[in-house]
Amino acid sequence: MKRNLLRGALVTAVAAIALALPAGSLYYEYKGGASCARCHEIRKNYDAWHASSHRDVACGACHGEITTLDAGFHLGNLRRLVQHVRQGFTDPVRLGTRDIPRLMERCRGCHGQEFAQWQSGAHSATYRRLFLDQKHNRQRLLMDDCLRCHGMHFEGGIRDLVAPLNARGPWRLLRPELADQPAIPCLSCHQVHREGELMPRAASGIEKSAAQSAAQSSAKQELLRPSVALFDRREQKHFSADLLPLPVMRDGARALKISPDTRQALCYQCHAPEASSLAGSGDDRTPVGVHEGLSCLACHLKHGMQTRASCATCHPRLSNCGLDVEKMDTTFVNTASGHNIHFVKCADCHPKGIPKKRV
Fold first, then answer.
1. Which of 24, 107, 206, 323 is within CB 3.0–4.6 Å of 77 for a Cys-Cys bond?
2. What is the largest CA-CA distance in the chain?
3. Boundary (domain end) residue, out of 134, 163, 188
């Protein structure tokens, strides 16, 4: 009898949990997300989404729906619902480290080409690749500032992620489940709820009017999308690229010309010079010499960072010297070259004097 009662109680408990888990999700999903706005702690996010370029995408399309099979997703919603009822929220609702991969799959669903480019580039590096790199860790001590660029959404400090914090190793991740998770996800450089207009949908054939053609022409295209923004882990918020400063740089004692391209202000937040402001110091790659004044994005693709077509974009096959610019001794051809493509000057290859331009 006792055993049957115990089994009955266990079945009842399991059934209660199974019913309770989706309860929070059902509450938030009701009326296409409008019920989310009833909670003061979510209202700010809801209002931002309602004015963003994603406002025609339902909340559930990115944050998951009641049919989602991930129990952790429903448990999170139930926890937030209980906290709301108890008025236990002390901080704004934020995405956790474990929520990032799930949300990125939603990004991939609509932005497949951009996702593929990002995935094939250096910015898709995983926590394992960045923090268990033996060569790097022997040369530079891991510290909290590493997370400013390589782990913006990680909840905690470097002591919560890697051990030991010395130059000897062997190093291991204290959160092994993050080993293959990207450390620089889409949300590092994009604010999903950023205010902006809906992206125009391309019309076809006769439906495409002259006005639409003009709006989609190169001269009318946006240079900077409103979503481009840096996520600052200290402030736990995004800052639009047009609010970020471009540094004042020097090439020796000379003031360096920098492209006014607003987008590269985002690049400079991680690829920054040292306090000396000298070009090429620290992680800076500001072009000097023959490429002075060019924007980062003149050569680097936005998401994949590939530079394969960069020379051909601006140069004819032959240079003023009569040589193929894509075969010159620079790091474009060979990474071991002494002529870094960012800093190469005419005099580097012509120490006896720069030849006159061919007519």
1. 24
2. 103
3. 188
Residue 164 lies in a domain: yes
Distance CA 242, CA 228 (A): 9
User: How far apart, in whole angstroms, are the C-alpha atoms of residue 198 and residue 207?
Assistant: 19
Predicted local distance difference test score (pLDDT) of residue 205: 46
Residues 79 and 36 in one domain: yes
The predicted pLDDT at position 170 comes to: 95
Q: What is the mean pLDDT of residues 271-289?
A: 91
| Calpha distance 289→357 (Å, rounded) | 17
Instruction: Provide the domain limits for residue 46.
Output: 12-90
Q: Domain for residue 322, yes or no?
A: yes
For the CA atoms of 138, 142, 145, 146, what is the dihedral angle to 10 degrees? 70
Mean pLDDT value of segment 291-311 = 89
Q: For 189-217, what is the mean pLDDT?
A: 63
pLDDT of residue 131: 97
Indicate if 137 and 184 belong to the same structural domain: yes
Integer-rounded Cα radius of gyration of the chain: 26
Cβ atoms of 32 and 59 within 8 Å: the answer is yes
Q: Is residue 104 part of a domain?
A: no
Q: How many CB atoms lie within 10 A of CB 36?
A: 21
Q: How confident is the model at residue 53 (pLDDT cuts 50, 70, 90)?
A: confident
pTM for the whole thing? Answer: 0.77
Number of structural domains found in the chain: 3
Burial of residue 163 (CB within 10 Å: 0-12, 13-18, 19+) is middle
Do the domain assignments include residue 290? no
Shared domain for 19 and 84, answered yes or no, is: yes
pLDDT of res. 118: 93
